[in-house]
Amino acid sequence: xxxxxxxxxxxxxxxxxxxxxxxxxxxxxxxxxxxxxxxxxxxxxxxxxxxxxxxxxxxxxxxxxxxxxxxxxxxxxxxxxxxxxxxxxxxxxxxxxxxxxxxxxxxxxxxxxxxxxxxxxxxxxxxxxxxxxxxxxxxxxx
Length: 142
Ligand code: DQA
Fold this sequence. Notes:
This protein has a single domain (2-140), classed as Rossmann fold (3-Layer(aba) Sandwich). By secondary structure, it is an alpha/beta fold. The longest helix has 14 residues, at 127-140. It is globular and about 35 Å long. Helix content is 35%, strand content 18%. A five-stranded parallel beta sheet has the order 2-1-3-4-5, with helices on both faces. Strand 3, helix 4 (80-88) and strand 4 (93-97) form a beta-alpha-beta unit. Helix 3 packs parallel to helix 4 (80-88). The site of 1,3,4-trihydroxy-5-OXO-cyclohexanecarboxylic acid has 10 residues, from loops.
């Protein structure tokens, strides 16, 4: 079973960036823990600050992978192109956010991508990713 986690802009700075909002853990450390926990799942990871690169990776994985876990960062609130990419592929996408976007500035309350995702998890820190993975791995073991 193949799952990809795709992180968007500024998420390469996790562990350094606004720690009070996003925590102090580097994503790579968390990813290693996830890989240990979900031994039977092939977990790929991609991060980019570039919108088109995120779209390319959605296209590349979106017809063959079993699930995409996507934190589009600020593009969540602005990108019609990422929304269209999610709509274009056949693989299910779960939207995740570390922070609770609904408890923050009003411009973060709207997600352009949410209607094209099968579900959204927001506000649970790194646990948001783990729960998305749990969903995909449970789904395929049925
Ligand atoms: C975020 C929330 C977005 O509003 C923000 O632009 C981010 C991170 C989150 O994970 O909480 O970069 O997606």
